[in-house]
TrEMBL record, chains A, B:
Disordered, as annotated region: 1-20
Protein family according to the UniProt entry: Belongs to the XFP family.
EC supergroup of this enzyme: lyase
Domain Xylulose 5-phosphate/Fructose 6-phosphate phosphoketolase C-terminal: 598-797
Protein name: Probable phosphoketolase
NCBIfam families in UniProt: PRK05261.1-1 (NF003616), PRK05261.1-2 (NF003617), PRK05261.1-4 (NF003619), PRK05261.1-6 (NF003621)
Sequence ranges of Basic and acidic residues compositional bias: 1-13
Highest taxon listed in the record's lineage: Bacteria
InterPro entries noted in UniProt: Phosphoketolase (IPR023962), THDP-binding (IPR029061), Transketo_C/PFOR_II (IPR009014), Xul5P/Fru6P_PKetolase (IPR005593), Xul5P/Fru6P_PKetolase_C (IPR018969), Xul5P/Fru6P_PKetolase_CS (IPR019790), Xul5P/Fru6P_PKetolase_N (IPR018970), Xul5P/Fru6P_PKetolase_ThDP_BS (IPR019789)
Entry keyword annotation includes Cell cycle: no
Source species: Sphingomonas oligophenolica
């Protein structure tokens, strides 16, 4: 690396004194020892926290959990970042990527006082220390990784790969904030992390804060070396420079040298960050993308831990990854653990009451400058509601149901443009999408803002801008990770995505939903803005893109998450989409999934009706229904199923004039569940009032039919609910053929109804024949013309 | 780049003649023009393929689909790779990453004859050409991307990001094979692709074939520039070198120059590949990881297409991404399209019958050397069944049910070791896992093989080897992508993964399942080995890792896929796991998901019973059941639910001695579905024979309860099926507390039974009180001791 291997190799021979005075070095080293001591204590001990008496097996936890390997490096960084914060009065938080690095962060926030402020029972005393040790990885205690419970964290170190995207999301529109993001070299192998480095092409140093990536080159994963630790430092340097960074190497295993080198490097990179920001902010950078600094920290895995256990090397190897000493039936192990802990000289660090001695404690920042107390890491504290324009101003005017066509997402785009404009000064709203904002018809937002872009530009480019508030990159992982980081630090956003490909972030959604669930039970975690998905370019209108683009299963995945966290909306037209979207942007601490099409389609509800309908979540469309008890309930959820249902209703009325039909439309899918399962669930009476207790229900559904069954199997009339939806049939074909292939077409729905109405049984054969004749004509027509029958394309609702 | 910008910049000024003779250059250029002509024809025309008469609007398709932008580059590469194949008699296939590059590959395979051999109706004539044009993106025709229908393809260009992983998977253990992998610069932004470059650390040049990555620096995505095209060539060079490659730049917009440069570069990189392989194979490389060559192809997007349309620049811009000219109501557009197509001078290329003229056609390779006919791209043709050791030799010997403990995956590991050993010479089986093979207790395989590793090694490393057949990398994407590539080229494998984190590849599973579905309907695609997942470290035994590691939803995701493609197995113990695994490794063209624990647990079935049970898919455990009609059916699926069910049965027998219990265990989850929905589904009579038609069923389930309801809602007795499973509750706690938190514990199951047996109603209050007292004791104990009650830990089945 430019600042590295050769240069460094000479350092020990000719050590510069470094920026730390001997006294400061001594105190910082003490602070580090204290953090390491507390980390080991958390992993091992349930009692005797200060080692006031010889360690016995009764002091040791029965189940040893936690990961020592990464911890001393994290502790080292925390102590050094503290110095930087204090000396420069920085507004800084840390995002900790390495898995199970919990003990280090818990130790440090306890040492600085943040932990005890959040958890008063974990006092800064001998008793508190005992509780601190005991709770770690203990039933009902705290997880072994950095978690929602950890003060100062916006990132869970459980599943790996999202740290750097979270860090960038956190600093967007936070010009004063620096996020020190520790990337584990194991984590660095994940796909999400491998592309996250490119986030620097979307960060505007004038408007946004800074991310300082610190690649912790710890060397090993659970059972293997890491790739980045075994490609040589030169190749790693090229990789980081190729990603657009200016890498600084901090390497060593002698604490004193590493302290000085790390301190000097941090001073240098901070100065570089400040220079980049100054140049961008006074305009002297010429609009060039800067080369941001990053640090490669190469220290031994499990540094300061036992060197040899049972005759095998541990420190600096994969054996230090988790618990370096186990099996305390061996008294030698107990002795070794004690020796290890005493090597940190706890009596020097903590007084006899267990209080961290002032000479060290005074090194920490104070108040909100402590990384464990920085409000950016508890975004709900900073959350300012969006200023929302009235969506009614964007309503599609309807002379009546099914009389005009509109593209729902394009209408929404107009409102989102205004949302963007209204909150431009607050700078707390962004749109995210994988190269699809315009494809998803939201391009009106470009009237008021561009797409963030810091890489090179060419004359032909459109709507790119350093100041753009639309985040476009061909990575669902980055869109999701950035948005999560943005929300977790107290801002708002919307992620629009092709429905099929949002599965790419299934696992990220999982982790975010779990974060939301857990933080609902942590009183000091304030609610954040909801994670809002707009899934469009959906299964029914990907006829041209073929089977690979057709998958409505994300809502199934979401429906498995905790009911108090997830909401799923299927607005049937533009006005209902407006109403739902406005609701979602006002909501807090949910995952909201909205599924809506982008193609021009018939509109059903005027804006007042739309609001009423969305508020109810589901309702009878009286204007399409007969009064009183029906022969059949034609239910629908989703825009295309609604269209086919309305067409089916028209067919039925034409051919069975005396039929009594009720049309029920469902916007809020969770109303289908029993109230015991979801707060939006309709009570039994309300559900039965819509779906009857004994009449056939033909339910045309946007997704896989089984989801409706899963939600309704406890309902009175469930046995009569017959669901049509996507059954994994599709290809490159026409829009109408897509519904035909999946038995969701109007003819099939009408036939389904006739088949289930007892008094129409004698008509079934004739209608079935007619159905197959119709299908024959359809197939012939599209094979000949490559498009749908004109009567289908031009179909219009009439009553 | 080392071979690039500066050096290249001088090229035009002093053009070396290049390796192509003027005559060869002329013919290759003609071949390229032909491919481009056919590509444009596919996108636009439904008739008049040779432009024998002036183009009219009736000749143009009503819906214009397909992506022109990437196509001329793909065509150029195909023509040049053909030259290389012919000159060096190469065994080569192409993996085409860019989305919707279908027309180019279809054109080229038609030109070389492969297409017509697979689809005789698409003759190599005027009529065939018309059908070729018409079928493209036409209902019932072929998709616009490279797809299963495309001869020579193992990769679908629909969802983006997996090309390079597929390419590496294809060449593992295929020393003679070279995969030219075209990576789109849009695709390169995805997470999966960004980490796929690191695959070169796992490729052994002595044993494996070679991947030649070709980054197609086309410049634009749908609506944005690409990152890699806008970081400058120097930074891109660093990035590629940092990934361990030796990048060669081929840049230009003058066809003649680019032809010569590309040809020269291909000669060079082939020589490099051969030199690397030779050195590795004769041992002269010293075991060093080589720096493989790769190519950056920088040509204008939509090259040779219209330069200006409606006054706006198109060629070389994002406007060339899809259909550069649309809206043929404008006669100028029609004229422009005709001019564009005629610019390729079709009459020179095709004779009056539409036959590709010999002077060009003769450039293509012949027989299996044609990339469209290479058997590696139709892996089923090459598939050799595994030689499978008898799993009975690995059976756990049981004195009786619940009398011995064993770790199921560890037992499986012993068998897998033998599978590995038996097929060592055939070199057609590998294990894949994200750094978890040992953590998942499969480490016995290291007795016979190591972990593939070509990066640096250190003395402390264990089991790393250039020749290892275990693929470990901390990326689920790479594990999945490599395995898919390995399977698609006719080999076998198993992917073991933490259950929660396999969601990372939900979307990859989708795409592979879709591939399997579609290829079942393509007669020339021969069945390939199944994609086998072993999900372990599962939800119930991630108590120590906490909520972030707990998610059993992958099987829900899989269950949404087409029934003839997916299989889900929940073996309750080691012997059933052996039986299931052996079955899966013999199966073809499925996705098999096996969920099994890694912790030592009680064993239930001797090996003969296990085989019988797995063959049936579900059955009554007679030895735990009372004869005749039961009061209650205690059903279970999954190892931990089975354990809790057995314990509940013991509790019930103790406290309700006259109770009549039937225990039903389900191994093959799909037996629950009606036969109409899944081929494994039990018929109604068989289902009712197990679950009765009217008795309460307490179903303890591994995953989310709703999955059981979704599968069984049409069954006679569904109203009485009461399912307990994971309800998204969990934290860092004890194993037993995990089941308590989710109401799946033995006490809850027993109480569930009592509550549902009418004649026991009067006991419910007392038993409920006892339940809560028990729970109180449990909570107190784990809070005090940090581990489960000894009576829980030591519980053993007795009857």
């Amino acid at each position: 690396m430019r600042h590295a291997p050769a240069e460094l190799a000479e350092r020990p021979a000719d050590p510069a004194p470094g920026p730390l005075s001997p006294e400061l070095l001594r105190r910082m080293h003490g602070y580090w020892r204290a953090a390491n001591y507390l980390s080991v204590g958390q992993i091992y001990l349930r009692a005797n926290p200060l080692l006031e008496r010889p360690l016995t097996i009764a002091d040791v936890k029965p189940r040893l959990l936690g990961h020592w390997g990464t911890t001393p490096g994290l502790n080292l960084l925390y102590v050094h970042l503290n110095r930087l914060i204090v000396e420069h009065d920085l507004n800084m938080i840390a995002v900790i990527g390495p898995g199970h690095g919990g003990p280090g962060l818990v130790a440090n926030t306890w040492l600085e006082g943040s932990y005890t402020e959040r958890y008063p029972a974990i006092e800064r005393s001998r008793n508190g220390m005992e509780r601190l040790f005991r709770q770690f990885s203990w039933p009902g205690g705290i997880p072994s990784h950095v978690a929602p419970e950890t003060p100062g964290s916006i990132h869970e170190g459980g599943e790996l790969g999202y740290s750097l995207a979270h860090a960038y999301g956190a600093v967007f529109d936070n010009p004063d904030l620096i996020v020190a993001c520790v990337v584990g070299d194991g984590e660095a192998e994940t796909g999400a992390l491998a592309t996250s480095w490119h986030s620097n092409k979307f960060l505007n140093p004038a408007r946004d804060g800074a991310v300082l990536p610190i690649l912790h080159l710890n060397g090993f994963k659970i059972a293997n070396p890491t790739i980045l630790a075994r490609i040589g430092l030169d190749e790693l340097d090229e990789l980081m420079r190729g990603y657009g960074y200016d890498p600084y190497l901090v390497e060593g295993d002698d604490p004193e040298e590493v302290h000085q080198l790390l301190a000097a490097t941090l001073d240098t990179v901070l100065a570089e960050i400040r220079a980049i920001q100054a140049a961008a902010r006074d305009g002297s950078d010429g609009g060039e993308r800067p080369r941001w600094p990053m640090i490669v920290l190469k220290t031994p895995k499990g540094w300061t831990g036992p060197k040899i256990v049972d005759g095998k090397p541990v420190e600096g190897t994969w054996r230090a990854h988790q618990v370096p000493i186990a099996d305390f039936d061996d008294p030698e192990h107990l002795r070794q653990l004690e020796e290890w802990m005493l090597s940190y000289r706890p009596a020097e660090l903590f007084d006899e009451c267990g209080k961290f001695r002032d000479e060290y404690a005074s090194l920490a920042p104070t108040g909100h400058r402590r990384m464990g107390s920085n409000p950016h890491a508890n975004g709900g504290e900073l959350l300012v509601p969006l200023s929302l324009p009235d969506f009614r101003d964007h309503a599609v005017a309807l002379p009546g149901p099914g009389q005009v066509k509109a593209a729902a997402t394009a209408v929404l785009g107009g409102w989102l443009r205004d949302v963007m404009a209204y909150n431009m000064d607050a700078a707390n709203f962004r749109l995210f999408g994988p190269d699809e904002t315009a494809s998803n018809r939201l391009q009106s937002v470009y009237d008021v803002t561009g797409k963030a872009w810091m890489a090179e530009t060419e004359a032909v480019d459109e709507n790119l801008s350093r100041d753009g508030r639309v985040m476009e990159v061909l990575s669902e992982h980055l869109c999701q990770g950035w948005l999560e980081g943005y929300l977790l630090t107290g801002r708002h956003g919307l992620f629009s995505c092709y429905e099929a490909f949002v599965h790419i972030v299934d696992s990220m959604l999982n982790q975010h939903a779990k974060w939301l669930k857990v933080t609902r039970t942590i009183p000091w975690r304030k609610p954040i803005a909801s994670l809002n998905y707009l899934l469009t370019s959906h299964v029914w209108r990907q006829d041209h893109n073929g089977l690979s683009h057709q998958d409505p299963g994300f809502i199934d995945h979401v429906a498995n998450k905790k009911a108090d966290v997830v909401r799923i909306y299927l607005p049937p037209d533009a006005n209902t989409l407006l109403s739902v979207a406005s609701h979602c942007l006002r909501s807090r601490h949910y995952v909201n999934v909205i599924v809506a099409g982008k193609n021009p389609e018939w509109q059903w509800l005027g804006i007042d009706e739309a609001v009423r309908h969305c508020t109810a979540g589901a309702g009878i469309w009286e204007w399409a229904s007969d009064a009183g008890e029906p022969d059949v309930v034609m239910a629908c959820a989703g825009d295309v199923p609604t269209l086919e249902t309305m067409a089916a209703v028209m067919l039925l009325r034409e051919f069975v004039p005396d039929i009594r039909i009720r049309v029920v439309n469902v916007v809020d899918l969770m109303v289908l569940q029993p109230q015991s399962e979801h707060p939006h669930g309709l009570d039994e009476r309300a559900f039965d009032a819509l779906f009857t207790t004994d009449k056939p229900v033909i339910f045309a559904f946007h997704g896989y039919p089984s989801l409706v069954h899963k939600l309704t199997y406890r309902r009175t009339n469930h046995a009569n609910i017959h669901v049509r939806g996507y059954k994994e049939e599709g290809t490159t074909t026409t829009p109408f053929d897509m519904v035909v292939l999946n038995d969701l077409d109007r003819y099939r729905l009408a036939l389904d109804a006739i088949e289930r109405i007892p008094r129409l049984r004698d008509r079934v054969t004739a209608e079935t024949d007619r159905y197959w004749a119709m299908m024959e004509r359809h197939k012939l027509y599209i094979a000949e013309h490559g498009d749908d029958l004109p009567e289908i394309r031009d179909w219009q609702w009439k009553r």
